From TrEMBL:
<dbReference type="InterPro" id="IPR006195">
    <property type="entry name" value="aa-tRNA-synth_II"/>
</dbReference>
<dbReference type="Pfam" id="PF01409">
    <property type="entry name" value="tRNA-synt_2d"/>
</dbReference>
<keyword id="KW-0436">Ligase</keyword>
<dbReference type="GO" id="GO:0005524">
    <property type="term" value="F:ATP binding"/>
</dbReference>
<dbReference type="InterPro" id="IPR045864">
    <property type="entry name" value="aa-tRNA-synth_II/BPL/LPL"/>
</dbReference>
<protein>
    <recommendedName>
        <fullName>phenylalanine--tRNA ligase</fullName>
        <ecNumber>6.1.1.20</ecNumber>
    </recommendedName>
</protein>
<keyword id="KW-0963">Cytoplasm</keyword>
<dbReference type="GO" id="GO:0004826">
    <property type="term" value="F:phenylalanine-tRNA ligase activity"/>
</dbReference>
<dbReference type="GO" id="GO:0046872">
    <property type="term" value="F:metal ion binding"/>
</dbReference>
<feature type="domain" description="Aminoacyl-transfer RNA synthetases class-II family profile">
    <location>
        <begin position="272"/>
        <end position="542"/>
    </location>
</feature>
<keyword id="KW-0547">Nucleotide-binding</keyword>
<dbReference type="GO" id="GO:0005829">
    <property type="term" value="C:cytosol"/>
</dbReference>
<dbReference type="GO" id="GO:0000049">
    <property type="term" value="F:tRNA binding"/>
</dbReference>
<keyword id="KW-0030">Aminoacyl-tRNA synthetase</keyword>
<dbReference type="GO" id="GO:0006432">
    <property type="term" value="P:phenylalanyl-tRNA aminoacylation"/>
</dbReference>
<keyword id="KW-0648">Protein biosynthesis</keyword>
<dbReference type="InterPro" id="IPR002319">
    <property type="entry name" value="Phenylalanyl-tRNA_Synthase"/>
</dbReference>
Amino acid sequence: MAHATESVRQALEQAVVAALEADGVIADTRTFCQTKDVEHEELVAVLNSMVRRDLVRLEALDAEAFYELTEEGQRYAEHGTPEHLLGAALRAAPASLPAVSDLPALLQQVSSSHGVADAEVAAADTWRQRATIGMQQGIKQGVFRLDKSQKPPRLVLAVAADDGWQRIHKLCAALRALQDRHADQETTDAATWETALRRGLVIKRLRKAYRARPGARFAEARVQQLTDLTRDMLLDHSWESVHFKPFNFAAPGTAPMEGGRLHPLLKVCEQFRRIFLEMGFTEMDRSHYVESSFWNFDALFQPQQHPARDAHDTFFLSEPASCVRLGDGDVREREYVERVRQVHERGGYGSLGYRYTWSEAEARTCILRTHTTAVSARMLYRIAQEQRERAPGSAFTPRRLFSIDRVFRNETLDATHLAEFHQVEGLVAAPHLSLADLKGIIAQFFRRIGMPRLRFKPAHNPYTEPSMEIFAFHPELNKWVEIGNSGIFRPEMLLPMQLPPEVRVIAWGLSVERPTMILYGMRNIRDLFGHRVDLNTIRHHPVCRIGWE
Ligand code: PHE
């Protein structure tokens, strides 16, 4: 029998409690389970568990016998016993009485026309056994006779065998009655059960019935079981004394109507990622939200007194306030840090430098990175090291790299500014790249995101020269909108890393939020990102397509 789920058992327990409360007794578990339409065994299991908790007491009533079909009995119940089937076969073929050796085949044939389930597939042995059973039982009941005057002997129908056939039909009817439980088993006579038992078609079982009364701790079964733990219960400590309903881990639950949805920003990020990958770019390891000022600014030749580096623009960490790993225990990195100091203080590589005293303590301050160009800087340094480790004179392997990740700025929050947002950054490092390459690759990239009309405007970044802001034409707004920033990394940034001098690195960056807002027609960035975002907006956003073409 299938096991009842926990919730079925709980419901049954509740029904028992209710009945005991109303009547003080459940007089007979058999009638109780008929009214509740549950299996007797299930009810007994629940009662036993209640007995263990002293919630009820049980008193055994007279056991009641009942019969259960065996596997063989089951088979006969459906289409009749073998002697019944064999009788049908003999009646259908009176002209040529079958030899005993023909009986198995004959039984198989008639079984199949009676719809016996395994009639086509059971083995020859099986049919021999069944034919033997049918023959022997039929002879025993006096409905068949073996005519030995013929060689080989033939099985014939006996004359005046009505009593025998009646017994056979009674047995078949009894088995059928057992099979469909509603049939009345009481009408079956003792002799028929006797036969069925002897032939192993049924087994006799006892159903122990009980009378149930409230147990010593019945009151506990009645206490209300709570399903919710509230703040008030925590505050007044009442949670310690109330009873909670146990979790029902077996409940099938209902399928969530609203599954998880990707945030529109994530969809846009994924689109950017795909475009970069299609263009043969590789994603950089971008796993530092917390960065040292060194990699975020100094390595990028951004002077230490640059306004972007103060607390009005950048988030500084108080714990840890200072980064411990900067060229410590790594001779090459230490040398690199020294070259960065020199290029800031005195210049070099054809540059005059900024002419101030560079502070390593300042470079070690921990910040939340303000742009993904910090990721690019780390990566370019690593590439330079890899190149140095190769055989002298080895050709530089050009790289196409990108990153998409979160950055942080200490902004005054308004409709278009958040303190954290996402940046997309692409770079190409190869010998002798020019501004034309930069414009070409940017044009390719923006065409793919659906912004084919571009304009470049000269701009300034501490780490690129020349630098260009990127504007794209928005046909619906009918105007040029600023969409990104770009440039060629300065020698003051690349040469201290010891990249080969002929290697140029062209790069561009843009925020994810800006094109997304334009794309989805949003006026306020806070509708897109942060705690004020409407969940319905996220749920019902269409599939993202970057670009306004
Ligand atoms: N880091 C720049 C910014 O935050 C974008 C940029 C990336 C500019 C690469 C030039 C080169 O806006």
